[in-house]
């Protein structure tokens, strides 16, 4: 192994800088599409989220080439900084100033190895310490100076081959999950109609009329250590879109009153107050997965007053539907890369209330699909991260 800087084995390409007035959402002669940080997903979405910029603003080396790794370097969310995707081909497309292009030198570093390393827990832990109070960012010079241990090229290729296969398996499992989710959405449409327009005319109520909405505990409060208690708590990282990630449940020391106020009970719906715009209000129903658990202030818990009127699982599904997503996007506050909602706008959400028997039928189908997804032969994303961790700490 040799210790190298990222700039020793790659070319770091700065993103295109342009003013709002210089960009256009329409294709026209003499303009080149520029993608933004939102196009950096599990794959690079070069045909989505484009802004068209005059050709003269873009240098040739800023066009995306095969094996370029495009990274988000600035965002309002520390979780998004460092997020990256690799280009599978050359594209007559560039990327904006909140991104950087990392162009591997194939004689020194395997592009696939580098891509997996930049997505590994080891590197992402470094990106989470990026500078900035409100806008998190990594300077291009800082990125280039990042040092890491690099094995010989043939060894890199061997490790990359293992991780490529594991990633392909993970993607196939995700495709299976996506197909099951599509089927469940089709079931919802068939049973209840379009969740946005409510064509079947189900009764509509305001969320605050049928549920109690609570914020969680704030970290950093002064405490009387003689009476304080230490409990597990749900963070934003634990609450995902349609499931709970419980691989890393941390603990927090709080006052007895906060412990009581923020205690979770079965049937509570956990919702995040911020995140990617398309996942705003993401959440899941709590079923006492962790005993004596509370939640932090960046997560709301929605506790239904009368479950004979509406089931938590059905309300959660409706919040996750286009009815919820469109509402939250409309009322949420948006900053660079993230959007947020507050307790007031969440309280004003208007779910529709079909007969409880119909809700229960939908929940039966949903549970059956969930059981199928859990029985798929490939383990969850946590195991891939574990494999990645071993690969870049010399344990593979």
UniProtKB/TrEMBL annotation:
SUPFAM superfamilies: DNA methylase specificity domain. Pfam families: Methylase_S. Residues 4-178, 199-361 form the Type I restriction modification DNA specificity domain. Keywords: ATP-binding, DNA-binding, Endonuclease, Hydrolase, Nuclease, Nucleotide-binding, Restriction system. Transmembrane segments: none annotated. GO terms for molecular function: ATP binding; endonuclease activity. The keyword DNA-binding applies. Belongs to the type-I restriction system S methylase family. PANTHER family: TYPE I RESTRICTION ENZYME MJAVIII SPECIFICITY SUBUNIT (PTHR30408:SF12), TYPE-1 RESTRICTION ENZYME ECOKI SPECIFICITY PROTEIN (PTHR30408). This is Restriction endonuclease subunit S.
